[in-house]
Specification:
binds ligand MGD; 3 domains; 6-stranded mixed β-barrel; 7-stranded mixed sheet; binds molybdenum atom; Barwin-like endoglucanases; 16% strand; Rossmann fold; Dimethylsulfoxide Reductase, domain 2; alpha/beta
């Protein structure tokens, strides 16, 4: 389910319509046959030719599978053999030659346990998919307000009279946010969208459960501004400059509660409109219009997603959004603030419970004293760091709890090569994906696990509004898969043995894991009572409803930025790699992208002016080339709704073209800032 919270109720307690993605996921789940049959009947060379759609639709993984280099096929193995192989490999590998990658769908309990095991085993090479996702938001927000998550709760957004939606496609990826935006609109609030592509659902949106909206649609965007890809820093700086020229800044707030205001205001005055418009591709008029709408609004919430973070200057983008909020005192009080709209359902919780290379000091100390152990202190690798280290042959064992590390990586050829250098690779998954075909170590073991809604025990997740929620779990849909908690505790027990500082048998019971979390993760104290009280709770110290921030001096921090040049030369186009309506990340459920009116995935969406300028024709086949790879037989798709000079292709297929260029501050790859050229076949 593409949502943020457990269960089918949103944070305001409203029952939600079943979202389409969860129906698709369940349908894929209930198919005849299993992914194990599929692996047994298809050679690796055949699997490599299959699409993400075909692999996902092979059914559920039900039994451990083993692939050994040199063989043509995967084969079934028993759980005992699989676990034995994994513990033998771990026992024979120096801890710092291993890495531990986590996707964001696992529970807090599973995440906490596996990272704890990795550290007791001896490494900090522990990271999660946020390094390819919202890491820039975490780093940017921490530098601005001292905490890396949303500063608001859902109720704040519902009360806003202006919402900025920057660099995201919520009609496809965050349908629940659309319901909130419709509430804002129904109360005469406004919405400003900043996005190089016009996403139709942000212009007018229809919800299936609302008959009125179904007939007419609700108009969403009051202003829709299309910068060039990568132009946001200039746009955001421009809005701030125009607010300043209107004299609409909240000077008392800036002086009393923020650091760095004077320097920043001087910097804004000194930045010319020529520079701002040239580096954003947005006219001064449009920027001034956004600024005056902002200046008139009382309660403003800023939302953003991957159009902001997937850039070399992702952290600066986030800081610039925070600056803009501070400028008019839209922080540190109810009904206003900052909202990074999250990716995976529990990616935030996974990060909170310690799935990061560097543990927060408080967590580190608490774990050491709770379990009476010494934890490793040397620097752990982030996700891209692990891939690069594996590429250099420095790593020999990887464990992936969920996700598709290969498929989500930039530069697929590099990614396949890096992971194939490993001696052992353990994939803990529900279904097949491209990684299982392309990224194979000397021995590759796939362990089949239950999805969260099939767990026998209750588990918890954290929503993007910092609310910890309890999920019931549910009946198992297939014989064979085991719970993540069971698998992790079994591996940990067999590697660390009876003398382990953590009793892994005790940790098989989720309430015992919650007790450990409550004692070691600051803000999660109440999780220890959740089994008795059922009380879901807000994590302390993250929602700022008073102007006192979690920074060392309690003030919000303003950052000055120099504006980056727009990327690209004469015949180059700026490429964004994005999701279609019919997919969840690397998992493709249907080929069509209904909102964008595109029926297949091997396309490049390009503005008519660019088609003309480059002498191309609609629906002709081209080769798309970047600095790291090329894709052949891509169909040119005439698309009015993208800003000329910029093009759109679908992730994960387009990852062949994405270089490893990343934001130095967050280490997030620039998935939206790829330069490409088109060549006639
Ligand atoms: N159904 C569904 N739901 C999902 C997911 C899914 O795959 N399917 N994935 C989940 C995950 S992990 C995540 S992280 C989120 C992703 O949610 P989104 O961020 O909405 O996902 P993308 O498809 O990457 O869309 C990027 C958006 O940013 C715009 N954009 C691209 N470049 C720029 C730029 O330079 N500036 C600006 N301002 N905008 C730009 C694009 O036009 C597009 O609208 O969704 C989550 N929810
Ligand atoms: N070019 C490009 N690349 C990108 C992006 C982009 O926009 N453009 N987006 C990036 C982003 S935002 C993200 S978050 C990453 C996604 O990175 P990942 O999280 O690594 O990838 P997913 O595709 O979400 O993982 C899908 C797999 O998760 C497994 N799975 C599903 N549910 C469960 C579960 O409950 N438990 C377990 N153990 N496994 C489960 C299934 O086997 C499925 O095949 O990709 C990144 N890569
Ligand atoms: Mo994500």
């Amino acid at each position: 389910m593409g949502g943020q919270a457990g269960g089918m109720v949103n944070e305001a307690g409203r029952t939600l319509e079943m979202c389409k993605k969860s129906v698709q996921a369940m349908a894929a789940d209930l198919q005849d046959g299993t992914a194990c049959d599929h692996l047994e009947s298809h050679a690796i060379s055949q699997l490599k030719k299959q699409t993400p759609y075909q692999l996902e639709h092979a059914g559920r993984l039900t039994q451990p599978m083993l692939y050994e280099k040199g063989e043509e096929f995967y084969r079934r193995i028993e759980w005992d053999e699989a676990l034995q192989r994994i513990s033998t490999a771990l026992a024979n590998t120096p801890a710092d030659e291993t890495f531990w990658y986590f996707s964001g769908r696992s529970s807090n309990e599973a995440g906490f346990l596996l990272q704890l095991f990795a550290r007791l085993y001896g490494t900090n090479n522990v990271n999660n998919c946020s390094y390819y996702c919202h890491q820039a938001s975490g780093v940017g927000l921490s530098s601005a307000v001292g905490s890396g998550t949303a500063t608001v709760v859902l109720d704040d957004v519902e009360h806003a009279d202006l919402v900025f939606v920057i660099g995201g496609n919520p009609p496809s990826n965050h349908p629940r946010l659309m319901t909130t935006l419709m509430h804002v609109k129904n109360k005469k609030g406004k919405v400003i969208v900043i996005n190089p592509a016009i996403e139709v659902g942000l212009v007018k949106f229809k919800v299936p459960s609302n008959p009125f909206s179904l007939l007419f649609g609700t108009r969403i965007a009051d202003l829709y501004v299309q910068p060039h890809i990568g132009g946001d820093l200039a746009v955001l700086t421009g809005i701030a400059k125009a607010v300043q020229e209107l004299g609409a800044e909240d000077s008392p707030f800036l002086q009393q509660f923020c650091d760095g205001a004077d320097e920043w205001l001087e910097h804004l005055s000194a930045t010319s409109w020529e520079e701002i418009t040239a580096k954003s591709g947005v006219s001064e008029n449009e920027i001034r219009e956004m600024a005056s709408t902002y200046a008139q609004a009382k309660n403003v919430v800023f939302c953003w997603t991957m159009g902001i973070t997937h850039h070399e200057h992702g952290v600066q983008n986030v800081q610039a959004i925070a600056n803009l909020a501070m400028m008019r005192g839209m922080l540190g009080r109810p009904h206003a603030g900052l909202l990074p709209v999250r990716g995976h359902s529990n990616v935030q919780g996974i990060g909170s419970v310690g799935v990061t290379p560097k543990l927060k000091d408080a967590i580190f100390d608490a774990l050491e004293s709770e379990f009476d152990v010494k934890l490793p202190t040397h620097t752990g690798l982030d996700t891209l760091g692990c891939m690069e280290s594996a590429d250099r042959g420095e790593l020999s064992l990887g464990v992936c709890l969920g996700g598709n590390l290969y498929g989500s990586n930039p530069d697929l050829e590099f990614a396949a090569g890096a992971l194939s250098n490993l001696k052992t690779l353990v994939y803990i998954n529900t279904t097949l994906n491209t990684g299982h075909a392309h990224a194979l170590a000397d021995q590759t073991i796939i362990l089949p696990v239950l999805a969260r809604d099939e767990e026998a025990q209750k588990t918890t997740q954290e929503s993007m509004f910092n609310l910890v929620r309890l999920s019931d779990g549910g009946p198992q849909r297939h014989e064979g898969p085991r719970s993540e908690i069971e698998v992790i505790t079994d591996i940990a027990h067999s590697v660390l043995g009876e003398g382990s500082p953590v009793d892994w048998k005790v940790m098989k019971e989720a309430p015992n894991i919650r007790t450990a979390i409550s004692k070691t993760i600051p803000g999660f104290e109440k999780i220890g009572d959740i089994d008795d009280t059922g009380n879901e709770f807000q994590i302390e110290g993250r929602t700022f409803h008073a102007p006192r921030f979690a920074t060392p001096n309690g003030k919000a921090q303003i950052h000055c930025h120099s504006l980056p040049e727009l990327k690209g030369g004469v015949n180059q186009l700026r490429l964004m790699t994005v999701r279609s309506e019919g997919q969840f990340n690397t998992v493709v459920y249907e080929e069509a992208d209904i909102y964008r009116g595109v029926e297949r995935r091997d396309v490049i969406l390009i503005h008519p002016d660019d088609i003309k300028r480059l002498g191309l024709r609609h629906r002709q086949k081209v080769t798309v080339r970047s600095s790291v790879g090329e894709l052949n037989d891509i169909l040119v798709h005439r698309y009015e709704d993208i800003r000329a000079g910029n093009v759109l292709m679908y992730f994960p297929e387009a990852n062949t073209l994405v270089p490893r260029t990343s934001d130095p501050l967050s280490r997030t790859p620039a998935f939206k800032g790829v330069l490409v050229t088109l060549h006639e076949a």
